Amino acid sequence: MNGTDTGFVLISAALVMVMTPGLALFYGGMVRSKSVLNMLMMSFISLGVVSVLWVLYGHSLAFSGDSGGFIGNLDMIGLKGVSADSVVDSFVTDAGGKAHQISTFAFSLFQMLFAVITAALISGGLADRVKFGSWMVFIGLWVTVVYFPVAHWVWGGGWLAQLDPAVIDFAGGTAVHINAGVAGLAAVLVVGKRVGFKKDPMRPHNLPLVLLGTALLWFGWFGFNAGSELGVDGTTANMAINTQVATAAAMLGWLAYERIRHGAFTTLGACSGAVAGLVAITPSGGNVNVFGALLIGVVAGVVCSWAVSLKYKLGYDDSLDVVGVHLVGGVLGTLMVGFLAIDGAGGWKQFVSQAIGAFSVMGYTFVVTFILAFVIQKTIGFRAAEDDEVTGLDQTAHAETAYDFSGTAGSHLSAAAPAPAGTAATSKKVDA
């Protein structure tokens, strides 16, 4: 076991874990105040549901054996056979070309947290209008029938890894972002639009919260991207710097497009642009140089900024732009690396493999997610009651509110405090 590489993967796993509460804050600030806690919980609960399913059977289905290139087997159910001394090969090799080995537990934890945030990403499309219990059922079933198989296709030795040339997906353009983005679209089409969509104002209620969430996502994404090398070498560093410059370029690209189209540089645009850049560089950053990363970032910022407006033209209510940012950004990054890959890896043949990877995941995930959401809607019900949605899901689903203003209606004057100027002095405590 290589201690340095194992330690790096464990640190990267911790950074990826921070991304889920970061996503919760990013999404939470974008919704209206009456449903902010519900939005936070829709992301946060994924840490509970998906982590448990991962160790029970998810790791085994994604990374144990291979059944026809589609899925693994149950030989490692409950992480059977894994001990403190168990190791797996990383992508890092020594001077003789021998792969470094890292702890299987570290690898499993890292991949578990990828599954967690992928499921959480879908929640942005469904903000304000689904039953929380049904959401937990949905993400549990979704990772089982969608994420675990797709992760196997890409990273577990499945059919996309067996193509010639194999699909390049360094850290999750297909398995994470395209997967979550198209799943969000399918679920939205089943659940329907929010009450008042395109009629009532639905502006973000707390942009500082969005900015904080973006910063945590950006910070954690270094573990997400660079950590996917599963060790420390030059490719790790290349992915790290590409993550930074692509994100920066995408933020500037989004703001430039926004200024030209709408006349302002908005905080929400800066945050959304940064996330679009992070998404687009995820599949490609380990295989392009810094100029390729800049190009991918700029294109993602501009195109994703344009794409978020499609929901108003096409009539689907993707509440927090999961389709416009994650699906579109994931497709851009996955396809562009086909031509921008360094060391002679790029070209038409690689581009064809990238397109096969992107569109096969889109097709499979859309169909299976649509069926899954439809079955939940027709059985236990997916959509919240209209009255609950209008009141706000914080109160109806969680019996809480994010902001308690009940103590601001009056003042508290103690006997020791001087009376305010212009009022009669009193020694009696006045309670609001």
Automatic annotation (TrEMBL):
Residues 8-403 form the Ammonium transporter AmtB-like domain. The keyword Membrane applies. Keywords: Ammonia transport, Membrane, Transmembrane, Transmembrane helix, Transport. It is a multi-pass membrane protein. It comes from the Bacteria. InterPro entries: Ammonium/urea_transptr (IPR029020), Ammonium_transpt (IPR001905), Ammonium_transpt_CS (IPR018047), NH4_transpt_AmtB-like_dom (IPR024041). It is found in: Cell membrane; Membrane. SUPFAM superfamilies: Ammonium transporter. The chain crosses the membrane at residues 6-27, 39-57, 102-123, 135-155, 175-195, 207-224, 236-257, 264-282, 288-308, 320-342, 354-376. Pfam families: Ammonium_transp (PF00909). The keyword Transmembrane applies. Belongs to the ammonia transporter channel (TC 1.A.11.2) family. This is Ammonium transporter. It comes from Streptomyces actuosus.
